[in-house]
Amino acid sequence: MNFKIFFFLLSALAVAGCNNSSRNKSAGESEIKDEPKFQYTAYSKDFELFAEADPFVVGESANILSHFTRLESFKPLDSATVTVRLAAGGQEITQVLDKPTRKGIYSFDIVPSASGSGMLTFEIKTGDDEYLVEIPGITVYSNEELAHEAAEKVVTSSTNTIVFTKEQSWKIDFSTANPEVEPFGQVIKTTARIESAPGDEFMVSAKTNGIVSVGDGTFAEGMAVTTGQTVCTVTGSGLADNNSTVRFAEAKNNYEKARADYERSEKLAVNKIVSEKDLLAAKTSFDNAKVVYETLKNNFSTSGQAVTSPATGFVRQIFVRNGEYVEAGQPVFVVSRNRSLILRAEVQQKYTSMLSSITSANIHDITENKSFTLEQLNGRIVSYGRAANSDNYLIPVTLLIDNTGGFVPGSFVELYLTTKTSDQAMTVPVSSLLEEQGKYFVLIQKTPELFEKREVRIGATDGIKTEIVQGLAAAERVVTRGAVLVKLSQASGALDPHAGHVH
């Protein structure tokens, strides 16, 4: 066969195959084309309801695919008895499901019996608790044509939107909320150094001259200690001068001799063999020896001075090494309870007039990427500087907090000092914002499964909330947690809005 004819036949077959495939695909698409649906979103104090429903037509079965989300955690309702009631045209239709079709999803099938406007009511029963979610403005149509025509008119615009199904949002740290309109004053952003509070640290010093002995070698910074625990010892053994071990032994011997002399004098004084003057002298010598001995006994032993921890906490800093000679009063180590912390910050002089109006602060832990309010840490503003000096032209600000956030003394945090104001501003959580090349965006909820990416103009931020100056209305609901993951889902390509749903 001529090669030209052969290649011509192959090309013709390929084109014919493509045309057939195209025709088959078009036919298939027309077969699986979705019927128009009504989408309903409703909120109660405890639940978010997102339902996709067939048009309600008298005498025809309509499916209501209902997604129930707990607003406290934005996780699905895993088990409950749910009753749906459709009231329209003076008639009421009810269906009860004892368990979800899938976790968080209840699929109802009801047949309306009368046309007209009405309401869908969902009664949720979990144990002894009952909840109610209502969807007003429901219409039951008298025929299919009217119903489908109405359904096609209410299709939500999908321009510049991202599909993110309820099943996807239930699997991540996700939430939505309306922006808040609240007082939002000027914010002073600075950096603060974390230090242990003065009343929360204890300096332990040597009480005698001697050599530091660690013993088993577990003397290290960061080690946990308890009140009264012996951390190390200071022993004078081997020292020719000022030997604490020798002094303790001498005190013990003097005490035992004075006690024996006094006891003997007491017996002899009964028979008037020893005068009262000699008895009093013996008692005085005994008391003096006892005071010296017991003082040394409480702090020393034959092995030297036991250096103990005055509080339960951890060893924050060590000043000596094993085998080093120390003198009485010399610091040995510091114990910190790490319960209270001091935040020391410095601000520019231009903020001096605002310092008196500081009411609170927000602390952002850079390493953990977490933010806390001053109230969450049971904190307070201790003081702020009234003047600058020649060494440092910045104004100091000092705060005291409880260490409930796992802060490490010596590290730094971002500090947002907030001032008192009566000015109202619209704010969203910092986690709501997406930044792209210096511009900021939020994801606005069109439905609980469809989100519009919109640019906004921001104002000041206090580390937890950010002021929205333009681009957002108070009635619009935005993604407050998980915005980045919703945005990333867009990169995976267009998703079927009903992907993963049970129809």
Question: In words, what does this structure look like?
Answer:
The chain has 503 residues and is α+β, with helices and mostly antiparallel strands. The chain has 4 domains: 1-33; 38-155, Macroglobulin (MG2) domain (Immunoglobulin-like), CATH 2.60.40.1930; 187-197 and 339-419, Elongation Factor Tu (Ef-tu), domain 3 (Beta Barrel); 198-336, OB fold (Dihydrolipoamide Acetyltransferase, E2P), CATH 2.40.50. The chain contains 6 helices and 35 strands. The strands form 7 sheets. Strands 11, 13, 30, 31, 32, 33 and 34 form a 7-stranded antiparallel beta sheet that branches. A 7-stranded antiparallel beta sheet has the order 26-25-29-14-24-28-27, with no helix packed on it. A hairpin with a 2-residue loop joins strand 31 (434-436) and strand 32. Helix 4 (244-270) packs antiparallel against helix 5. The longest helix is centred in the first third of the chain and has 30 residues, at 3-32. Mean pLDDT is 83; it is low at 1-33 and 494-500.
Describe this protein with a few key phrases.
503 residues, alpha+beta, Elongation Factor Tu (Ef-tu), domain 3, 42% strand, disordered N terminus
Largest sheet: 7 strands, antiparallel
Number of separate structural domains? 4
**Percentage of helical residues?**
10-25%
- Ends apart, CA distance between termini: 56 Å
User: Do you know the CATH topology of the largest domain?
Assistant: OB fold (Dihydrolipoamide Acetyltransferase, E2P)
Any idea what the CATH architecture of the largest domain is? Answer: Beta Barrel
Number of helices: 6
How many DSSP-defined strands? 35
Strand content: 35-45%
Q: Whole-number average pLDDT?
A: 83
Structural class: alpha+beta
Tell the overall outline.
Answer: elongated
* CATH C-level category of the largest domain: Mainly Beta
Spans of at least 5 consecutive residues whose pLDDT stays below 50 are: 1-33, 494-500
Which superfamily, in CATH terms, is the homologous superfamily of the largest domain?
A: RNA polymerase II/Efflux pump adaptor protein, barrel-sandwich hybrid domain
